[in-house]
Amino acid sequence: MSALSTPGGTVPATAGRGRPVWRLVLGQELKELWIGGRALNLLILFAVLMSATSFLLATNNELSLTPPRLMMVVALQSTMSFGLFIGLIVGAESVSGERERATLEPLLLTPAGRRHVILGKYLAAVSPWPVAMVLAVPYIAVLAQGDVALGIALAWGAVLGTILTFFFTGIGLLASVWSGSTRSSLFVSLLIYLLALLPAQLPGEFQATAAGAIVQALDPLESVRQFLNQYLVGGLALDDARSLLVAPVVALILAIVVVLGVAAPRLALDGGVRSLGPKASTDVEA
Fold first, then answer.
1. Is residue 286 part of a domain?
2. Is residue 192 part of a domain?
3. What are 60-99's pLDDT values in tens digits?
4. What's the number of domains the chain is made of?
5. CA 163 to CA 149: how far, in whole Å?
6. What is the pTM of this model?
């Protein structure tokens, strides 16, 4: 039986009626991510940042006058921003890191289909998000101060945070697949992340302009921020706020299609633009 080689060890590559290869890749990636300590370190950083954010919101003299619902939404937005950042970083390192460790070539020479390899890495990279969301619940609950909207806010946060995490993790994976080094993939991923955060720093009046509407239509992170503010804080009806969810949903679909439909079949040993060419003859899709 062939073997599937990963940094975390070697597992048998199954075919036919055996266990799907993507599940084997997922298992090995999860072991490396969680037992290896990378996910734990990132979640510790997340907990520190959430603690600092919640402390400032609760104790700052000016911010203490902020309505509890607004503080709850701010904490929820911070949770999503920090959580998707973890997925972005893990995704950006997942393939380019293996290139640098010289462990990608054995993986590509196995009967494992390239889509299975990328799917396993994709799912592993988003695995810290549910944990981050659970860790954030006590902070958000304290800031909500018993607001009746807490439950629906957490529900929307979980759903929208999952959509954004899959999108940004996909961005990181794309950069990792097409980059020859982890430094390059991290640089590209962080640049896109910072650009996505930029609209939130623009004046509120800008959002009411045509340019602001374009930004909301193109930036899924800003669309989610506007949705939470207008729906949960501003009291906008769900039917009226629903249009703000178009951008994140479309972004999620595009990310999955490009990652699994375009990048994965063309996964190459050296990365770069040559990975956009025809599938390598060694690619066996299960």
1. no
2. yes
3. 655 556 788 888 999 999 999 999 999 999 999 999 988 8
4. 1
5. 21
6. 0.85
